[in-house]
Fold:
Amino acid sequence: MITLALSKGRIFDETLPLLARAGIEVLEDPDTSRKLILPTNRADVRVVLVRATDVPTYVEYGGADLGVTGLDTLLENRAQWSSAGAGSGLYQPLDLGIARCRVSVAVRADFDYAAAVRQGSRLKVATKYTAIAREFFAAKGVHVDLIKLYGSMELAPLTGLADAIVDLVSTGNTLKANDLVEVERIMDISSRLVVNQAALKLKREALRPLIDAFAQATASQSAEPRP
Ligand code: PRP
Structure:
């Protein structure tokens, strides 16, 4: 049995076409089913639904053989995995080029971010990406007080909790709807295929064709003109 870990939402939706190109069809819709283990048209392949931040953990410790996870999740939690001594259990063979977005700094439209940085002000920054934000502002030489949040980051500058946020931006619609502006792009993000190292050895014959199919689907998808 091959177990693939996915998170609901953008990653699940954008992984489906890649699976289809590998001849794999998920037989239940996670939006209507309460099941966490979804069967596929292949008796030897199943999908498990986990929180986005849990995908690497499932793959790392063998709860799943492979998974799809954002680069943001991988980078943000890198320290956690290597300090657990488990950093070697996760093999990252492919950039799938899906769920593309960016991690950016955003502020209220009336906040002069450039001036605050120039003057060496201490910035209050709310984010769930504290590791990525800490590294970014340290490299810029900007002093920050980081406030850890788990969601609705856009509220922080609007309520006075923070001067700025570090969050994912895709279309920019969420920022616009909340009168925030993107002032710096920290990094581009896309989803990665991650594979359990031990499974890669022990289930090589079953996994290799699947990984190759993902690679081919990714290559042919990126060769198609973008809408
Ligand atoms: C992300 C992010 C923003 C939104 C940006 O949230 O936190 O809220 O997407 O997308 P946009 O630029 O297209 O408006 P996501 O939907 O990933 O869920 P989350 O709030 O759980 O992080």
